[in-house]
Amino acid sequence: MKRITTYRQLGLVLILIATTTFLLYLSTHKEENMVLQSNKITIDSMSGVNSDENRTVKKAYSVHSPILIESDDDLTGFPGLGTKDDPYVIENYNITDSTTHGIKISGTTKYILIHDCYLNGGGSGSSFYGIYIDSTTDGTITVTNNTISNYATGIYLSSCSNNSFTFNIITNSNNDGLYLSSSSNNTFSSNTITNSDDDGITISFSSGNTLTFNNITNNNGEGIYFSFSSNNNLASNIIAENINYAIDLYSSSSNTFVKNLFIKNNQGGSSQASDSGTINKFYTDITGNYWYDWNGTGIYAIDGSANNFDPYPMHVDLDRDGMPDKWEEDNGLNTNINDSAEDLDSDGLTNLEEYTSNTNPNYSDTDSDGLSDGEEVHTYFTDPLDFDTDDDGLLDGEEVKTYSSNPNNPDTDSDGMPDGWEVNYGLNPSNDESTEDFDGDGLSNVAEYSHNTDPTNPDTDNDGLFDGQEINTYGTDPTNPDTDGDGLSDGEEVDVYGTDPLNPDTDNDGVSDGEEVSKGKNPKGSSLFAYLFSSLASSIITIIVLVLVITIIIASIVDIMKKKKNKQMDETKKQKITKITKKKKIGLKFFNEKIDSLENEWSWVEREQKSGQSLFDTAFSEKISELFVELIETLIGFNYAFTKDVKYLTNLDWLSAKKRLNSLVDQFRALLLKELEEIDIDTKFEEINNELTKITLENIEKPSEDKLLQPFDVLLDTLVKIDKNIRKTESFIDEFTFSKLTSYWGKLSDIIVTVKSEVENKRSEVRKNIKEVKEVFTDKRMNLERLETLNKVVSVYKQISLSKLAYLLKFSSNSALIYWMSKQNLDFSYRIVDDEIIFEKQEEGEKEEGKEEIEYDSEVADAIDSLLRQYDEWSKGDEGKKI
Questions:
Q1: Closest by alpha carbon to 395, among 427, 429, 363?
Q2: What are residue 444's phi and psi, to 5 degrees?
Q3: Which residue among 58, 114, 384, 850 is least packed, with the fewest CB closer than 10 Å?
C-alpha cells in the first residue's frame, strides 16, 4: 500500500509538466476563466497554483537550530514589532534536526510571519512536526514560501483559526503532510503536498477552512481526509494520483467542493471520492468538478453511505484541445500539447473528430466495414461504429464498392426484399425483381422472401412438393418436409399414400400415418379396434421385450449423460482446485508469517500491559496503534481471501490460521476496551497538575509544555489512528463484511469518540494552567532579581529595623521569599500565619558563636534608605500593585 511504482511517478511527472505548461499560458489571464463545452472543460482557471512567478526569490539560507516559542517573551530577538503591519519575522533559516519540531509556536498573541525557510526532519523515522502551531491568537500567523520535508507531519495546527498558509512545499511526511485539529477559518492556497506516507491532508474537528489552488499528489493514503468537520470550502485544487480517495468524508457535513481536478486517485476503484457524512456538496449552482475518469454521461457517483454525487461533472483537458486527457491517454495521444487537428491514422478524421465520433484514432476503419471512418462521416454519412448501418446484411463497404447499393437504405430498389437477401440469392439489389419467379416454383421472388424459401430452388425443403404448391394448394410449410410430423414427407402423403399432410393420423385410429405405413397397414382405412386386437393376440411377448429394451436404452442414455456431466464438472472443479490450491499455499504461507509477527508483537503488548503500562505511555501507545493498523489490514486481506474461495478453503491449516487471527482480534479488542474503560483521565489530569504545582514551588524555570502534555498527546494520536483505520476498512471490503466489522468495532468506536473528547477538554485545561504558571514565573523572575539586592542588606541588617526589612520583603511572593531566605544565614526566624510573614529576632545570647560583628556604615545605610524609597514608589505604581 505504501509503495510508489515507476508508473505512478511517471504519471506525476506528466501531470506537473502539464500544469506548468498551462500555468505559463494563464499568467496573462484572469483567474476565473473556465470554458464549459458540452460537459467537458478546457482549464483556464488554475493560475496561482504554486507558479514560480508568485513565489518570492529566496535569499541564501542561514543554518539555525529548532525554534521554540511558547509565549510572546520568546519572540524577543526576532525582527519586527509583532503588529499586523510589522510582524515578527522568521525567515531564510535552514533548520535540519531530527530531535524536535522544526518551528513550534504556542500561546502567542503577536503577529508572526514565517517565510522562505528550509526545514528537514532528518529521516523517515521522525515523530515531530515541521511547523507546529498551537493555540495562538486568531489571525496572527502567516506561513509562506517554505520547504518542509521528512517530518512526521509537515504542518500541524491545533486550536488555531484565521491564519494564512501559501506557497509552501511539503514532501516525504511519515504521516500526513498537513493536519488540522480543532482549527477553523484558516486559508490554504497554492501549497504543494506530495509523497506523504499517509494522507496528504487530514482535517479533524475543524470547520470553515478554505483550500484553493493547492497541489495534493502522490500520497499513500487519501488526498484529503475529513472527520467530524463541517463548512469547509475547497475550490480549484489539483488532487492527483493518491493511492486512496482524493476526498474521504467521515461524519462530516456541509462541506463544499467545486472546480477541483481529480486525476487518477483510487485507481481501480469505482469513484475518486467517498462520502459517509451528510449534506456535503460537490457543486455550486451549475458548476461541479473535473473528474479524470468521468465517462461523459450523466452524474459522477461518489462512493460511501451518503449516496452522494456530482450532478455537473466535467472532463479534465489540461492541454485545452477539446479532448479529455483520459481519452487521449487511452488512445496514445499527447496530453500536453494541442493535437486536435492531427489525423493519427490518416482516415480523414482529425483526432478531435475521432473523439466526438467515438471512433478509434489509431485505426482508420473502426468498425472494419471496408470504409474509412472519414468516408463514413463525411462522404456516405454512415455510422463508423456499425459495420452494417442499415442492417440489411451487407457491410457498408460492400454496398458502396461492390454492389452500388445504398448503405443507409436496407432495400435500395424498394422491391420489398433487403439488399443482403437479394445478394445472397444472386438477385440485383439495385433492380426491382420482386414479381419474377427465377426457380419456376409458382412463388414470386418477394413471396419467397416473405415465406423464407429459396428463390433459386423450387422445392426448398426437398419434400417432393414445389414451394408454390405448398403455399397456394396444400397449405403446408415449404421449409419443413414433414409439416404434420407423422413420419411421412408432405410429398409422400400427397402423391403416394393420399393421406392428409396436415393431419398426422388421417384415419383417426390413434396410430400415426407413418407408423401404419411402416407396419404395412393402411393409414386411411384400419380401425383402432382391429389394430389393437391383432396386435394384442400376437405380440404380448414383443411388448414386454420392447418395454425392457426401452428401459435399458433410457437408463444407458441417462447414465452416459450423467457421466459426461460429472466428467465436465470434475474437470472444471479440478482446474479450479489446482488454481486455488496453488494460490492457497502461497496465501497461507504469507498469512501464517504475518500472524506469527502479529503474535510476537502481541506478546510484547501483553507484557507491557501487565507491567502497568497504559495508553498514556508513549512506547506502549505507539505499539498499540501500529499493531492495530497491521491487524486490521491482515484481517481484511484474510477475510477477503477466505470468503472469496471459501468452499475450497476447507483445509485445516487455513481454519487454524483463521482461528489464530480471530483470537488475536478478540484479544486486541478486549484489551482496547479494557484500557479505554479503565483509563483514568481525571487522575492523569491531577498528576499533571501536581507536577505543575511542584514545579511552581521548587523551580524557578518555566514548565515544559511538551513534556506535561505528552501523555494526553500520545493518547490522542493513538485514538485518532485507531478510529481512522476502523473507518477506512469500508474502502477495502464488501458491504456485508464491513457491516459485521463495524458492528464488532462499534462499541470501541463509541468509546474512542467519548475518550477523545474528554482528553481534549482536559488537555485544554492543563494548557490553561500552564499558561497561568508561566505568567507567575515571569513575575517571580522580576521579584527574584529584586531579591538579589537584599544580599547587600544582609551584612548590615542590624542597622535596619525588622519592620523595614519585612516591608521590603512583602513585595515578593511567599514561595520566592522562602526560596531566598532558605539560602541565607540570618539570626532571626520567621513563620507564616494566614499568608502573613512574622519575623522573630533571636535573643542576643542565641547568636552564633564566632559570628563577626558588622559595624555601622553610613554609606551603606544611605544606600539602603534610597533603595527602600525606590521600592516604596514602585509598590504604589501599576506594576507593583499587580505583583
A1: 429
A2: -70, 165
A3: 850
CA distance 153 to 171: 9
For residue 377, give the C-alpha cell. Answer: 462521416
CA distance 188 to 208: 12
Residue 440 lies in a domain: no
d(CA 198, CA 437): 80
The reported pLDDT for the residue numbered 32 is 36
Query: pLDDT grade, residue 333 (50/70/90)?
Result: confident
Looking at 310, 325, 349, the residue that finishes a domain is 310
User: What's the confidence (pLDDT) of residue 271?
Assistant: 95
- 507 is written with which cell numbers? 384415419
Is the domain of 534 the same as that of 671? no
Same-domain pairing of 658 and 759: yes
| β-pair type (261-263, 215-217) | unpaired
Asked if 523 and 507 touch (Cβ cutoff 8 Å), the reply is: yes
CA distances from 636 to 643, 709, 733 (A): 10, 35, 7
Is residue 37 in a domain? no
Q: What's 314's DSSP letter?
A: B
What's the CA gap between 474 and 476, in Å, rounded?
Answer: 5
Angle between the N-to-C axes of helices 705-728 and 618-644, in degrees from 0 to 180, rounded to the nearest 10:
10
For residues 130 and 76, give the distance between their C-alpha atoms in angstroms, rounded to a whole number.
Answer: 22
Question: What pLDDT digit, counting tens, does each position of 264-289 carry?
Answer: 999 989 999 999 988 899 998 889 99
Bridge partner list, 194: 171, 217
Give one word for 80, left, alpha or beta, with left for phi > 0 and alpha for psi -120 to 50.
Answer: left
407: pLDDT strictly greater than 70: yes
Pairing state between β 35-37 and 40-42: antiparallel
The last residue of a domain, from among 282, 310, 338: 310
Which residue type occupies 705? E
Same domain, 756 and 858: no
Among the ranges given (237-251, 308-322, 519-533, 704-718), the one the predictor scored with the smallest mean pLDDT? 519-533
DSSP calls for 710-747: HHHHHHHHHHHHHHHHHHHGGGTS-HHHHHHHHHHHHH
> Do residues 171 and 151 touch, judged by C-beta distance below 8 A?
no
pLDDT-derived band at 465 (thresholds 50, 70, 90) equals: confident
Residue 716 Cα to chain centre, angstroms: 23
521: left (phi over 0), alpha (psi -120 to 50) or beta: beta
109 is written with which cell numbers?
A: 498573541
Which of the residue ranges 50-54, 238-242, 591-595, 865-869 would you say has the lowest mean pLDDT? 50-54
C-beta separation of 178 from 151 below 8 A: no
Strand order in the sheet with 153-158: 67-69, 103-106, 129-134, 153-158, 178-181, 201-204, 224-227, 247-253, 273-278
Domain identity same for 756 and 686: yes
- Which residue blocks in 462-539 are alpha helix, DSSP H? 467-469, 490-491, 513-518, 528-538
Domain that holds residue 533: 482-538
Q: What is the CATH number of the domain that holds 142?
A: 2.160.20
CB count within 10 Å of CB 208 equals: 15
pTM (2 d.p.):
0.51
Instruction: Check pLDDT > 70 for residue 202.
Output: yes
Contact present, 75 and 112 (Cβ < 8 Å): yes
**In angstroms, how far is CA 438 from the centroid of its own chain?**
71
Asked if the structure places residue 562 within a domain, the reply is no
Same domain, 709 and 830: no
- Same domain assignment for residues 531 and 625: no
Q: How far apart are CA 552 and CA 417, in angstroms?
A: 52
Examine the domain organization and report whether 97 and 56 are in the same domain. Answer: yes
Three cell numbers, residue 238 = 489539483
Number of domain units in the chain = 4
Query: Could you tell me if residue 355 is inside a domain?
Result: no
Mean pLDDT, rounded, for 9-15: 45
632 and 744 part of one domain = yes
**Per the structure block, which three cell numbers stand in for 594?**
504475518
